[in-house]
Amino acid sequence: MSELKPDAGPGSETSRPGGAANSNRPSWGLWATGLLGGSLVALYAVATPFVAPALRKVCLPFVPATPAQVENVLKALQTRTGSLVDIGSGDGRIVIAAAKRGFRAVGLELNPWLVWYSRYRAWREGVHRHTDFYISDLWKVSFSQYSNVVIFGVPQMMAQLEDKLQRELQPPAKVIACRFPFPTWVPAQVTGEGMDTVWVYDARSPRQPEIRDLQEELCCTGRQHQEE
């Protein structure tokens, strides 16, 4: 007599569709979740340095200088020598252009990606030995060592920066403001027009209120002489 084999129950391996092959199937859900999570982390790491400036009290966004702005800055520097610092150096184009004109040029920038890219550009352009780029907050740096300061600022910061530079810079240092002028300093030179305008200031430049006070003093003195 042949042996009767018991029927496989509904819970046995042989009764399950796919059997053992199904247990070895990759868990695509976990892979997709991990890939999405990794992508979000990478996106956060890249985007945060660009978004963070907008969350600061004074926002200094990255807006690349136009060729006309770079050219106007170089025109303002034609008779200048010595060290140069670009405040908010972005992708390094002003620093690199100045280094090609013989300046020892430094860029200060909060965005680490832009700092690393600027270093790469300086190396590619052959001026990496004459440039330095630092991840730095302009309010925590002294500018007393520089003879030329370039700033692409925004109106909200110019008054505070004017006071800081007034305290720290020594003659014959010059300040070149691009896009927006300082509120009370009187420029020694203006180059360009529109958003490509640059204003050149002497260190310890007289301020507009000081000039008005001087004019009033001279006027009063003139009246006294007339009365005598």
Short description:
This protein has 228 residues and is of the alpha/beta class.
| Beta-strand residue percentage | 5-15%
Mean pLDDT: 79
From the alpha carbons, calculate the radius of gyration and give it in angstroms: 32 Å
What fraction, in percent, of the residue positions are helical? 40-55%
Please summarize the sheet with the most strands: 7 strands, mixed
Annotation field: number of helices: 7
Give an account of the 3D structure:
The structure is a single chain. 43% of the residues lie in helices and 15% in strands. The protein contains seven helices and seven strands. A seven-stranded mixed beta sheet has the order 3-2-1-4-5-7-6, with helices on one face. Strand 4, helix 6 and strand 5 form a beta-alpha-beta unit. The longest helix is centred in the N-terminal third of the chain and has 28 residues, at 28-55. It starts with 18 loop residues before the first helix and ends with a helix.
